[in-house]
Design brief:
The complex is a heterodimer of chains A (162) and B (1475). Chain A is of the alpha/beta class. Chain A has 5 helices and 4 strands, in the order αβαβαβαβα. The N terminus and C terminus of chain A are likely disordered. In chain B, α23 runs parallel beside α24 and α35 packs parallel to α36. The chains are: A alpha/beta (162), B alpha/beta (1475).
């Protein structure tokens, strides 16, 4: 394999047109310290572009995610939420991510019932070396939520509980 | 005794050793050859057998080393010498420069982004490029860039002005021409001129000349100048003089103008005096237009003059005295050599006889040149041809050049001669000039003779030997002497101190250009006679430096010697072989057609097109790696880069040394039959690992190097560089890493076929067999065959090879082949061993005694990891700890003496109202270039609770941290928010600043506005700023609600309990006692020694029995060890640091108090064994057979009794098969011993696989050589045994032969599986520790915590972990002792911090938390209320989130804090703004 000059890292941060024209949906990402948050950092080190409407909240472990946090994010105006933990079987705290997975599954059902839509919530598993995957997840979620449109709680005239 | 140790090697073994030593109070110097620690493990994608992400698990360890107050990492360092004795060594370390100050570097990567150099990234196995300024990998520790320099490139070295040619060539290759021009100008004010007329010695030195022609550096330089000059000229900023001394420069040629530029840049007012009407000297009036167009000269002179140089043309300086008299403090004389000489031959003064200047200078100044029709130029130098070609263009019908030199010795450049001849100039070499032939007072020709030979004597006098009778006349109406130019020295006539050379030029000091007259310097042709422009520029630079030193009355510092980095022919060959380099001939410039050019003065040489320039520039071999273009210096706003850094030699005093230099993958280029380098689709395992890695060169996509396509068939070939003629040992890891890579390949490309071609599947470790089974289930194909060679299909670039399966030979094809290369000693192993004074074994690994795996031949020097034999990660970690244990036993009395615990001011009382300081980082331009940081600060000031908000260029810099501490005091801050990068790397730094300022470190929060904002949203600054506002708002909201946390000290009992008195337990007990801790050693049996009490047959002549006896004697005699044989543990309670364990013995029960527990319960043989053991005297176990061989039991059977040994016997109908790891080597050793004792007796060994991993491969080879037959049976087709009184027949279907073989046996020896010792499962319950399905204890982490249990304070070793040979059991025992030692050494443990807490009023005793907790940290008290043990709690929050009654809370991540953060992040319940 030959070594060709390649563009500098800086030039990689050009948004695709899809991103630029994405509607302004708000997405909150709950990331565990050891893997997903590290993957998000690595996406930064690698200067991988993803939509700026994804905002990260750091948790020690996704196992510690209180369902209340996710519901509160929707209540506060988030259009989508994702929980990102270690790869399955590789949780730094043994099995926290598996508990998070089942918690997310149950909350999806609850969101469906509440009319918000379970597809607005997702669980992802990332290793700390998967910077590109984090950027991809951020794009995937943005695309999914953009297609769904703003959360029903955010639509004009929607009653937002105090 | 020095309480410090040196660990050499920053791989996982060295890291573990360093951490254990440092945690046990020893100061550690961690010496790493590369720019970052992490070793081989950091290059891996996943790890077997769990497929854990390697980076995920090593990263916390890297951080722990980087932050540890007792560890000092010395990167780019090598141990050079070790003197002294154990306990007090002096270690001499050579440290190569990093050129980046790690204390200043923020790892932003600005330097790498601008660096134009590309070299293959060694971290990526050469599959991708990296810059010369680089970070080894994204997560590297230290988190700092480094610049790789191999020395000065030969091109630069050969150049008189040390023009950094490699630098601008690299920039041209990237299309960065303006930067290239900047780089040229740093050393050379005349890029366009030198790009045309220099004799470019750089190209003579170019390393590429050894391959396919030097890089056309001159043409590239010219291209850069032409490219820049074709664009509008940017005005040059005039420099304001800063010094009062005026300097006069006489002569405006290259020397004068260079000195003038340098001096103006140094701040001096400079006046240049020029006698001619135009500036430029010979560049303007000596070189003809067709070679150097006047506009180029004018442009480059203008760039100098515009800096503020005063030029006075038409001003002839009569005498330099006048200049001194009119107030010039120094004078630089650069008047050149303009007086053309004539030879003293008859007729030299006749009409029609001219000198070169009459033609060249007059023409260029627009004066008439009186030429005839037939011109004869005398002189074969460049000037002669300049004259000749000028005459041709001026209309001469015929032009001849004559010279005394032979054609090949003519001084002019060959291309100059060739171009002139093309234009019609006729050349007459070897011609002696006798006299000018005259008619009517005018010259009509020259009488000549043929020259046979010529030479110059020492006084530069010419001696000619001519051919007798060779007189002839060259007819000409114009004769021009072009035989040299001499300086005119009238203007220094009579000056004191002036002297001249024998050939009439001014004598100067070659280093300073100083004449003997104070203040008068001279350079250029006036001192050298006619020379090249670049020599004059060099003189100008030297003179300017010297004049500056003279005027400032300081001594001129000599330039340090710099090594030259020439790429050797061997290296070129290696690069070609690895495919990093391809042949690509030098690109020549285009010339105008001869008929066009002879008719005009249009420039002959047309230069490169842009495309040609980039192509030619890309041929550069980057000899020096860093080209010193200084782009990085301009880019680094932190000013962290220092190209002047030099190598240092340092001495450290240490008590012990641990060598952990690791391994080197076998260089597969040596195994030519596989075509690495020749066949692009043949990779080695470490390269494939990088292809798999998400942060690798292809971002985790498996692509064929030849065409980038996804491979459909991937072949993994085992034993490349292992188990062969030269490397007899087995590399121990390749079967498993190939299995892993094949499995991952299938995950990445589910359609692809992945096949492992192997000889023996060496799945000997814990969980390995199950792992291979899993791979098979996931579709990985295994073929037992050795592939000897590969052929490439030139069309598809697929690889073909022959395989032998079930005795049939067929050909297979693969799109991609991955060679599972073995492990060899690390590069520089011999030098390191010599430096450390330790012996190596025959393979070049460090030699160690059989049962003391970390001891080297030199006391006080220990070894760990792959440096003394190939091994996987857990074994390396174990040895890292084991070596630390050995060092700790030596250095125990000096613990804590080389470290100073930091003292912090008392914490200030917390006021009720939050007063938050917000500090926002620019990170140079990394954040501020995208995000409006001032706007963020203004916004932060509006947030509730914020008392102050500031920005700083680098918030993590020492001065900025001081400002934060100052602000805490000045503004009475009680919370701090830093908006910068990631808390993963920087939170500890800021928390430390808080502690130093007297604030609780938990009153701190970060907003990651770099890694997760400016770096990923650079294309949308407005949105990035908006997000940064939200992140800061969220951080402030949480910060306002943060509470101080205090860890509580819990005292530690400095005593240990070791359970199990075999070699592992005894070793652990002895080491801990040697470390100074009292130990209780409990053993169920009546005697110590365990299974090793039985005699063992060894193949290496070692005597384990003797080793064991010595060990037991020492244990029994040690005053700190209490041996309780015949005792067993019946109960235990307590937590880390404070356990109470009840042991029962013949005399009743007793309670032992201890701080740490080591479980070393060992192994037992599988019983009852079928096949007739214990009933049929002809059937015995391996252990019984060994007793016989050792002479401890009477031998049965005759001398010729045939023996069949059956391996891998176990209860596999009840539990899945696992390998007992020791039986292969042990059985083969026994077989070998038996064969040697009874050469006539047939011996056959029957096994599922032969797993003589590592150096045990030797016994396998020996046994086969001695005639031991080996058969491999399939698990589903085990050997059938028929026992009759007449004899035993064993029928086995051999997997390699594919045939069934019936063996007659007088004796049948069974190797039963090794199983956990009796009582292990009881202990599992007593200590609440998990175990595998087979009953082996489960360590905290398979890879990186092999000696720890997840429960703190408990450790394991020996067979309790998994079957292993005695040497490995000893290593494990030492490791457990080291781990326990780090705990027992402390007076107290700090517990608490981020842990769960219970609100007793809300607990409903539902036990949810108890069931969930993976750390057994929750208990229920007498009232049925949950109680969290802060010593066990890891702070994951799992119980908190699950508690139905919300009774649990996670400190530092309380619901209130988190909800406030979420609210603010979404701007929902934004904190009330201060109006």
């Amino acid at each position: 394999m030959s070594v060709e000059p390649e563009p500098t890292a800086r030039t990689a941060a050009v948004p695709s047109t899809a991103e630029a024209s994405a509607p302004q949906v708000q997405i909150v990402a709950f990331c565990c310290f050891y893997c997903a948050y590290a993957a998000a950092d690595l996406a930064g080190v690698m200067r991988l572009s993803y939509p700026p409407n994804v905002r990260v909240v750091l948790l020690p472990c996704t196992g510690g995610i209180d369902p209340l946090y996710i519901l509160r994010a929707f209540e506060d105006g988030a259009d989508g939420v994702f929980v990102a933990g270690c790869l399955e079987g590789q949780c730094h705290y043994q099995v926290g991510n598996l508990h998070a997975k089942s918690r997310v599954r149950r909350l999806k059902a609850l969101l469906d019932e509440a009319g918000i839509g379970g597809e607005r919530l997702e669980m992802f598993n990332l290793s700390s070396a998967q910077g590109p995957r984090f950027a991809e997840v951020a794009r995937e979620m943005t695309a999914r939520i953009s297609a769904l449109g703003p959360s029903p709680l955010n639509r004009a005239g929607a009653e937002v509980a105090p | 005794m020095i309480g410090a140790a040196m660990v050499v090697g920053g791989g996982i073994a060295g890291i573990q050793a360093a951490l254990d030593l440092a945690d046990a109070g020893i100061k550690v110097y961690l010496v790493e050859r590369g720019p970052a620690i992490g070793g081989r493990m950091a290059t891996l994608d996943k790890t077997f057998p769990t497929n854990d992400c390697a980076m995920c698990i090593i990263s916390p360890k890297l951080g722990a080393v980087g932050r540890h107050p007792n560890i000092e990492i010395l990167t780019l360092a090598e141990l050079e010498r070790l003197e002294g004795a154990p306990g007090d060594f002096r270690a001499t370390v050579r440290r190569r420069p990093r050129f980046v100050d790690p204390a200043l570097c923020t790892a932003c990567g600005d330097c790498a982004a601008v660096c134009p150099v590309r070299v293959p990234s060694e971290f990526d196995g050469g599959l991708g490029p990296r810059a010369a300024a680089y970070r080894l990998y994204a997560q590297a520790v230290p988190a700092a860039y480094a610049i790789e320099k191999r020395g000065r490139s030969p091109c630069r070295d050969a150049c008189p002005i040390h023009q950094r040619a490699q630098g601008y060539v690299a920039l041209v290759a990237q299309g960065r021409y303006l930067e290239a021009l900047r780089v040229i100008r740093m050393d050379n004010p005349f890029p366009g001129i030198c790009g045309r007329v220099c004799n470019h010695r750089c190209e003579d030195a170019c390393s590429r000349g050894q391959l396919d022609g030097a890089v056309n550096i001159a043409a590239l330089k010219r291209f850069v100048a032409d490219w820049a000059y074709a664009r509008p000229r940017q005005p040059v900023a005039r420099l304001v003089p800063t010094r009062s001394e005026r300097v006069a420069v006489v002569g405006s040629g290259p020397a004068g103008l260079t000195a003038a530029r340098d001096l103006v840049e140094l701040g001096y007012p400079v006046t240049v005096f020029e006698a001619l009407p135009v500036p430029g000297g010979m560049m303007r009036v000596g070189i003809p237009e067709h070679r150097l167009p006047a506009p180029i000269v004018e442009r480059e002179i203008a760039d100098i003059l515009d800096l503020g140089v005063e030029l006075r043309c038409n001003t002839r300086v009569a005498h330099v005295r006048d200049l001194f008299a009119s107030g010039y403090a120094a004078v630089f004389l650069a008047t050149g050599a303009h007086r053309a000489r004539r030879l003293p031959i008859p007729g030299a003064d006749l009409a029609g006889v001219l000198v070169s200047t009459d033609v060249l200078q007059n023409h260029r100044l627009g004066k008439p040149v009186p030429l005839g029709q037939r011109v004869l130029v005398l002189g074969g130098g460049n000037v002669g041809f300049d004259v000749a070609r000028t005459c041709l263009r001026l209309g001469a019908r015929e032009v001849h050049v004559a010279c005394p030199e032979a054609r090949e010795a003519m001084p002019a450049h060959p291309w100059e001669i060739a171009a002139a001849e093309e234009e019609g100039v006729q050349v007459h070499p070897s011609t002696a000039f006798v006299q000018v032939v005259e008619r009517d007072g005018r010259a009509t020709g020259l009488l000549c003779r043929r020259v046979r030979s010529m030479r110059f004597d020492e006084a530069r006098r010419l001696h000619l030997e001519v051919v007798e009778g060779s007189e002839h006349v060259l007819e000409a109406d114009t004769i021009v002497f072009a035989i040299g130019l001499a300086p005119e020295l009238d203007l220094v006539q009579g000056l004191e101190g002036i002297s001249t050379t024998p050939w009439g030029s001014l004598q100067v000091d070659p280093l300073t250009q100083a004449t003997g007259h104070p203040g008068l310097f001279a350079g250029g042709d006036v001192t050298t006679g006619t020379a090249f422009v670049v020599d004059a520029i060099a003189a100008g630079h030297r003179a300017a430096r010297a004049i500056d030193a003279y005027l400032r009355r300081i001594a001129l510092q000599p330039e340090p010697a710099v090594p030259v980095a020439k790429v050797t022919p061997e290296e070129i060959a290696a690069r070609l072989a690895r495919g990093h380099l391809r042949r690509q001939p030098r690109l020549a410039v285009h010339l105008l057609p001869a008929e066009v050019r002879r008719a005009s003065f249009v420039e002959v040489d047309r230069g490169f097109t842009e495309e040609e320039a980039r192509r030619e520039a890309s041929r550069c071999l980057a000899c020096g790696v860093c080209a010193e273009c200084l782009e990085c210096v301009l880019a680094c706003k932190r000013e962290a880069i220092n190209h002047a850094e030099r190598e240092r030699v340092e001495t450290y005093r240490v008590g012990a040394v641990i060598l952990a230099a690791g391994v080197e993958p076998f260089d597969a280029v040596q195994a030519e039959a596989y075509g690495v380098g020749r066949f692009p689709n043949v990779l080695v395992g470490p390269q494939f690992e990088r292809l798999l890695s998400a942060s690798g060169p292809t971002q985790g996509h498996i692509r064929r190097p030849s065409d980038g396509a996804a491979p459909r068939r991937i072949a993994f070939l085992q034993c490349v560089g292992s188990r062969d003629q030269r490397t007899r040992y087995c590399s121990a890891v390749c079967c498993m890493y190939a299995t892993k890579e094949a499995m991952l390949a299938r995950e990445h490309l589910p359609q692809a076929q992945a096949t492992v071609y192997y000889a023996d599947m060496r799945a000997f470790g814990k969980g390995f067999d199950a792992y291979v089974e899993r791979a098979k289930q996931q579709g990985v194909r295994y073929v037992r065959t050795r592939v000897a060679a590969l052929r490439e299909d030139p069309r598809t670039r697929n690889l073909r090879f022959r395989v032998e399966e079930d005795g049939r030979v067929c050909e297979e094809e693969a799109d991609l082949v991955v060679l599972s290369v073995g492990l060899t000693p690390p590069r520089g192993a011999a030098e390191l061993a010599r430096a450390a004074g330790v012996d190596l074994d025959e393979y070049g690994f460090v030699a160690t005694p059989s049962f003391d795996p970390v001891r080297t031949s030199r006391p006080g020097v220990f070894v760990a990891g792959g440096f003394h034999g190939p091994k996987d990660i857990p074994d390396s970690v174990v040895e890292g700890s084991a070596a630390a244990a050995a060092a700790l036993a030596l250095l125990a009395p000096a613990r804590g003496t080389q470290i100073t615990p930091k003292v912090y001011p008392p914490e200030m009382a917390l006021e009720a109202e939050p007063r938050i300081g917000v500090f926002i980082c620019h990170c140079g331009s990394n954040i501020a270039g995208v995000v409006d940081v001032q706007g963020l600060a203004a916004y932060a000031r509006t947030l509730a609770g914020v008392a102050v908000a500031e920005t700083s260029l680098y918030t993590c810099s020492a001065d900025a941290l001081e400002r934060i501490k100052h602000a805490i005091a000045a503004h009475h801050l009680n919370r701090v928010v830093v908006a910068s990068c990631t808390p993963r790397t920087h939170e500890p730094i800021f928390r430390e600043a808080l502690r130093e300022a007297g604030l609780n470190p938990y009153l701190f929060e970060m907003a990651n506005i770099r890694d997760q904002c400016s770096w990923v949203h650079g294309a949308d600054p407005a949105a990035a700023t908006e997000k940064a506002r939200a992140l800061i708002g969220a951080a402030v909201a949480r910060a306002a609600r943060l509470a101080p946390l205090h860890k509580v000290p819990v005292p530690v009992r400095h005593e240990a309990l070791v359970i199990g008195g075999g070699i592992a337990g005894a070793t652990a007990a002895l080491n801990l006692a040697d470390q100074g801790f009292p130990v209780t050693l409990v053993e169920r049996e009546p005697a110590l020694g365990g299974r090793l009490r039985a005699p063992l047959v060894t193949w290496d002549g070692s005597d384990p029995g003797a080793v064991l006896r010595a060990l037991v004697d020492r244990v029994t005699a040690h005053p700190l060890i209490t041996v309780l044989t015949g005792h067993r543990v019946v109960a235990s309670r307590g937590t880390v640091g404070n356990f109470e364990t009840t042991v029962a013995g013949p005399a009743g029960e007793r309670v032992v108090g201890h701080g740490a527990t080591i479980l070393a319960t060992g192994l037992r043989e599988w019983r009852p064994v079928p096949y007739g053991v214990d009933e049929d005297p002809r059937v015995l176990t391996l252990a019984e057979f060994e007793r016989e061989l050792a002479g401890a039991a009477p031998p049965r059977g005759g001398a010729a009794a045939s023996v069949v040994m059956l391996l891998c016997a176990g209860p596999w109908d009840r539990i899945p098969f696992y390998c007992s790891r020791t039986c292969c080597a042990q059985s083969l050793a026994a077989a070998l011993a038996y064969r040697r004792a009874h050469p006539q007796a047939p011996v056959a060994v029957l096994a599922r696989e032969i797993r003589t991993y590592g150096f045990a491969e030797e016994v396998y080879l020996e046994a086969r050589r001695a005639g031991v037959q080996v058969f491999r049976y399939a698990p589903d087709d085990p050997p059938r045994i028929s026992r009759t009184p007449q004899g035993i027949t064993v029928t086995v279907r051999d997997q390699t032969l594919g045939e069934e073989v019936a063996l007659r046996a007088d004796r049948l020896v069974i190797s039963p599986a090794l199983m956990p010792a009796e009582g292990a499962s009881e202990l599992s319950t007593i200590f609440k520790i998990p175990a595998t399905a087979e009953g082996f204890f489960l360590e905290a982490h398979v890879k990186l915590r092999p000696a720890d249990f997840a429960s703190e304070g408990l450790f394991l070793c020996g067979g309790a972990h998994y079957p292993k040979p005695a040497g490995e059991a000893v290593a494990g025992a030492l490791a457990a002792a080291a781990r326990a030692g780090t705990l027992l050494w402390r007076d107290s443990l700090e517990v608490g911090g981020v842990v769960a807490t219970v609100d007793r009023d809300r607990c409903t005793s539902c036990l949810t938390c108890l069931r969930l907790c993976a750390y057994d940290a929750i208990a229920f008290d007498g009232d049925g209320i949950a109680v969290v043990d802060p010593a066990r709690c890891q702070g994951c929050g799992l119980c908190v989130a699950a508690c139905p009654g919300s009774a649990l809370s996670l400190a530092h991540y309380t619901r209130e804090q988190m909800l406030a953060k979420i609210d603010a992040l979404l701007g929902a319940r934004e904190a009330v703004h201060v109006s």
